[in-house]
Every structure is written in structure tokens, then in C-alpha cells.
Amino acid sequence: MRVHGRHQPTLEQHRIFETEQGIGIGKGYALDQIADIIETSGCTDYWVSLGGDVIGRGTDESGKPWRILLDALHDISDKDAYVTLPADKRQTVATSTRMKRGGKGWHHLIDPRTGRPAKTLIESASVVAETGVLADVMAKCLVIAGDEAETFWQDHHQIAAFVQYTNRWEKYE
Prior knowledge:
Number of domains: 1
Number of strands: 12
Distance between the termini: 46 Å
Largest sheet: 6 strands, antiparallel
CATH superfamily: ApbE-like domains
């Protein structure tokens, strides 16, 4: 088998695994790069959304901090449905979900422990962090962590997380 790239797959029990499994950070990385370009140009008030993940800094046209509405699968209070970004520094809100793709019975978040789509009661997780990459990775990790999400958050927490389980809504700070 010819391998391209920097990862060498291994064969274990008739399944192929990469030795260094990665987590997709494309949107988070792109948001960080776009924000760098915007700030380098001298702009201090902006927000950018890529596929629902948002990075921002400053205030809106009325001078109020940016408010980002979370996509809620369950009933939540209006207060908890929004993330308000601070005016004086950059922050990102990234969401990861286990929504099924293309009508298939599986989703795209792979549990590195099994090499298969994660089995989890978490429908989605939104994370607020200082960088897009960090928010993107943390949101995916929370969904994959499943029942261990709260413990994972306590060990690796960022600014805030909003986790939607199949039957409830949790906010971690």
C-alpha cells in the first residue's frame, strides 16, 4: 500500500487506523486567519461566520457587544440562548454536532478509541474560546466524550460550553 502525507496507517484486527488521528480544525483555523487579516487592516469591530462558527471582536453599529444566537435543539431560556462576545478582545463560538450526514445512519465525528462514529447522547456542543482552532477542537471533543463530557470540560475548560444532550441542555463554565 502506498501512503501519501505524514501519517502511516497501521492494520489492527483487519481495520486500518492512522497512527496520529487528527481532528478537523479547518473552520476554526480559517476564522483565526480571517480575524488576523481584519485586525491587521485596522478594523476593531467585526464578526465573521463560517458554517455557523463565529469569531468576533468589538461592538455592533449601535455600540453593543456582539450577541451570537445558539442553535438550540431543546427549549432553553432566552438568556442562555445567546453568547455575548466581549468588546475588548477576540472570541470564537464553534459548534459541533452529530447530525447525520446525507441521510445516512452515521455522523462524521469519529471516536479515536474505536475508529467509528462516536456513540454519544450529546447532540451538539458549542464552545466559546479565545481562538477558532481551540473552540473547534473542544466542541468536537465534548461531543465525542459523551457521558464523560463534564469531566473532560473540568480538565480542559475554556470560557464556556453549551452542551445539548438528547434530553437536556447543560452550560459549563
